[in-house]
Each structure stands twice: as C-alpha cells, then as structure tokens.
Design a protein that fits this description.
Blueprint (H helix, E strand, L loop, with lengths): L4 E5 L3 H14 L4 E4 L2 H7 L5 E7 L7 H8 L7 E5 L7 H6 L3 E5 L5 H34 L7 H14 L5 E5 L5 H11 L7 E5 L5 H7 L7 H4 L6 H4 L4 E5 L6 H11 L5 H6 L2 E6 L3 H6 L5 H7 L3 E4 L9 H16 L5 E2 L1 H9 L5 H15 L4 E2 L24 H23 L4 H8 L3 H10 L20
Parallel strand pairs: 1-2, 1-3, 3-4, 4-5, 6-9, 6-10, 7-8, 8-9, 11-12
Helix pairs in contact: 1-5, 6-7, 11-14, 15-17, 18-19, 19-20
The protein binds adenosine-5'-triphosphate.
C-alpha cells in the first residue's frame, strides 16, 4: 500500500529533486512540490496528501500549525521536517503538531532511504487504522438495519457512497419503507455525525413558518439572531431532513429549486447544513399533472435512493421479521420468543400495505399477545381487524373528542380482539372472561365494528362454541 500522494514544501530545487528521486525508488505515488508558504497552503489537500516533507529553510515549522488548522491536528498525516543545519530542539518539536520525524538535511542516501521507508510504513498503518475504524463504524451503524438481500445491500451501498459529500440526497419510497432510517443512517455515516440531525415534517408546518424557519426570505442576518429554535439554527453544522415534501406549495418548490441551483441563498451556506429530502409520493406522476416542478424533480433525482415496497422484496421479510423480533423483544423484555414456521409463511404472503412499520407493529402484537414462547398466526392480526396501536392514530387528531374516540377504538380492537382470539370468536365466553354481560360486549363490538368471524376456526366444528 502506498500513500495517495506526497507533498514536498521546499524552495530549493535541488532538495526537491533529491527527494523526488529517492521517493521514486520506493513508490510510484504522485509527488508534488510547493516552493513557498502560500503555494503550500494552496496545494495542500488534507484528503490526498498523506506524507509531507517540509524544508525548515523555506517555511517556518509553524506552517504546520496553519496546516493543522485545515485538518486539526495533523495526526493522520506523516510529516517529515528537514532541519537543514538549523537546530531544532525537542522543545520546539513538541510545539509542532503532527511532526513524525526530523531529518537533518542534507541527509546521506541511506538515511534518506530509511526515513522514506519509515514514513511510508506509517502512512500505510494510518490508512489501515482509518479503514478499520470506518469498517467498525459502518458495522455498528448498519447493525440497526436488517438487510441481507441484494436489494438491501444495494441500498446500503448507495447510503455509504452518498454519505461522503455535502450534496442534497433525495429519498423516496412508500410510507413505512425506512426513509427516515435511511436518512439517519446517511447522517451517522457522514462527517457531520457529531452534529445534529433535525427532521422537519413539512405537512405539519404552515407555509409561512416553513419559509421563515427554513428558507429565510431576507438574508442570513436572520440566522445571526439568537433564535436558536429555528430549524436552521438547530441543524447548524449538521443535517436537515425535510420529510414528506410531496405536497409542498409551488412557492416552497421555487425556494427549494433556488437553493439547489445554488442561486444566492446564504442561510444554508453560513449555517453549513446538508439537506436530505424525502417523500412517499410518486413525484414523477405529479410532474405530469404539473402539481410538482419538473425541474426540481429532475435536480432532486440526480442523487436518489429509492426504498422499494416490502411486497416487492419478499426475500427481505424473514430477516426483517427476525431482526424486528429481536429488537422489540429486548424493548418489551419478552426474551426467547420465536416466530413459528406457519406464521413466517403467512408473513411472506401478506401484502404489507404499511411496509416495514406494519411488519414491526405485527411483531409487537405477537410479542404482547402470544401465550407461549412461540408466536403463531393466532397471535397476530394479519387479516380481519387491523392491529391498531391504542393511541397512535389518536395522537394525530386535533379535536379532543375525536382523539379520545380514536384511542378507544384502538383499545377496543386490541382488547376485545384478544378476548375473541382466546375464545375462538365465541362472544359469550369472551364476555365471561372480561366480566361483562354478553349484550354489553356485543354493543361495544357493534359500536367499534368488531366482528367475531375472523377469530372463529375456519374448519367449523373443532373448537367452535355454541353462542
Ligand atoms: N431495513 C430496516 N431494518 C430494520 N428496521 C427498519 C428497516 N427499514 C425500516 N425499519 C423500521 O421500520 C419503521 C418505519 O421506518 P421509517 O420511519 O424510517 O419509514 P418511513 O419510510 O420514513 O415512513 P413514513 O413515510 O411513514 O414517514 C421504523 O421503526 C424503522 O426503524
């Protein structure tokens, strides 16, 4: 392994060529030379220059401090200082960040060769360490995502590739396919991972607030204000995730287009924010009916991650189901449960309109209601009434009465559904089990449209109770 490239900072052409010749005997990597401080600062690229030779006659070793400002500290670079008769004390060496070796110049051919060997080896070790750290980080981050299938691997590859950059990334897919998870993963893999990730749910903000908070109309002076609550200020240095942009007004589409085309929109630049944008709408179709800007759609599509619906990738269902079971079993403290082969078959055949979120809810239901370690088809509600979280839908209602009614509906579907499952759809037995009169339970079932039929055994006589 050889360093990506070497930089020699020396105004002395003889020193430059001696070093270049000695380096050429050891490796074939590109070597560039800078004759002075400003040339050095101009051509120094922290990403590619792994090995730097600095002639102390040409530039004050303090240049290193300046270079360190570019990528501070220079601990991932190997710096060799040519002392050239100038006495450089250990104390001074201590003050220079990132220095690896001081080579008294001119050096004998043997000294120079072994110094280059050591420096190249250090470059290689640093690169290996960086690669291992990256692998380790990716492994940890991807551990939160299930996906052994080719489909998922392709998606994970796109996420890793696009993570390294500052460009806007467009994430599409039906509801529950994992767009937010993809956006968060991209952020965590990027160099911005130490800074905030802020999600803006566009439909829940009025147009004016969206423009005020995100697309400052006047200038970035607004950004200098102490209003630390605006999305832009909260996302400073990090990632702003604009979720569900499918229905944004044409005025906001224009603002977004303006930003993406890099016309003056100083807010983003001074706040140093990366934009990730998601939608569950088919924007291609919306452009045909002129409901969405074609130009904006085309620009967004240049860096695009699409998450296919779960029904189009049934091979992902078993690994996802096992992954989600492990995740939720840990959360709910229901250890050791497993999915029966029969249930797995049913999961594979289900259309999953709600995608991975629906699969996750099904697994949660199974974990909560299975009476043994094995979660079977009877412990989940795949057909018949939908497994409603008692409060999830209610939380989206503004009106208190509507919200309460929604919560009661969810509660009754789950609670009575569980009773009916135990009684094989027999209402009298279910009523007895919960301490209600049969008629009272029947009234509740009628009110919330709960049918006992899906809970009754399909074969008829075995296990059916007379009403
Ligand atoms: N590949 C995956 N591995 C594990 N969990 C996943 C995966 N994809 C999605 N999930 C889980 O599924 C749920 C839904 O995912 P997410 O919220 O990211 O979907 P979404 O596409 O953003 O949905 P919406 O459009 O409704 O906002 C989350 O709990 C998420 O952690």
């Amino acid at each position: 392994m050889i360093p990506a490239s070497i930089l020699i900072i020396s105004s002395d052409s003889e020193t430059q060529s001696l070093l270049q010749q000695a380096i050429a005997k050891k490796c074939t990597c590109p070597t560039s030379a800078a004759a002075g401080k400003s040339a050095a600062l101009n051509c120094f690229d922290p990403q590619t220059h792994e090995l730097i030779f600095i002639d102390s006659r040409t530039v004050d070793p303090k240049l290193l401090t300046t270079l360190a400002d570019i990528q501070s500290p220079l601990k991932n670079h190997t710096v060799v200082l040519l002392s050239h008769g100038r006495k450089i004390s250990l104390g001074m060496e201590d003050e220079i960040p990132g220095i690896y070796e001081i080579l008294h110049w001119p050096a004998s051919g043997q000294h120079l060769a072994s110094c280059i060997d050591r420096a190249l080896e250090r470059c290689m070790l640093i690169r290996e360490k960086k690669q291992l750290q990256l692998d380790c980080r990716c492994h940890k981050i991807f551990a939160k995502i299930a996906g052994q299938s080719k489909n998922m691997q392709k998606i994970l590859d796109s996420i890793s590739t696009l993570a390294h950059g500052n460009e806007t990334v467009f994430i599409t897919g039906e509801s529950g396919t994992g767009k937010e998870l993809a956006a968060r993963t991209l952020h965590r893999l990027s160099s911005r991972s130490g800074s905030p990730f802020i999600r803006v749910h566009c439909p829940s903000l009025p147009e004016e607030s969206l423009i005020d908070e995100i697309f400052f109309r006047a200038s970035d002076t607004a950004l200098q204000t102490t209003d630390s609550h605006t999305f832009l200020n909260r996302a400073r240095g990090g990632t702003l995730f604009l979720d569900e942009i499918g229905d944004i007004s044409s005025r906001i589409q224009d603002k977004l287009l303006e930003y993406l085309k890099e016309t003056p929109e100083p807010s983003y630049r001074s706040a140093n924010i990366r934009l990730l944008i998601a939608t569950n709408r088919d924007l291609g179709k919306k452009t045909e009916s002129h409901a969405f800007s074609k130009e904006l759609f085309e620009i967004l599509s240049t860096r695009h991650i699409h998450l296919p619906p779960l029904r189009r990738r049934p091979e992902d269902i078993p690994p996802l189901a096992h992954f989600l079971l492990e995740k939720q079993a840990y959360k709910l403290k229901r250890y050791g449960r497993y999915i029966s082969p029969e249930l797995m078959k049913r999961l594979m055949a289900h259309p999953w309109e709600g995608n991975i979120r629906e699969l996750e809810n099904t697994i949660i239901h199974g974990l909560l209601f299975s009476s043994s370690q094995e979660i079977g088809p009877d412990d989940v509600l795949l057909s018949g009434p939908k497994p409603l979280g008692p409060c999830s839908a209610a939380l989206h209602q503004d009106n208190y009465r509507d919200a309460k009614e929604e919560a009661l509906k969810g509660f009754n579907h789950i609670y009575i559904g569980r009773l009916l499952k135990r009684s094989n759809g027999n209402i009298s037995l279910a009523a007895r089990a919960c301490g209600l009169e049969r008629q009272a339970l029947q009234q509740i079932m009628k009110r919330y449209d709960i049918s006992p039929v899906p809970y009754r055994p399909k074969t008829g006589c075995d296990g059916g109770y007379p009403e």
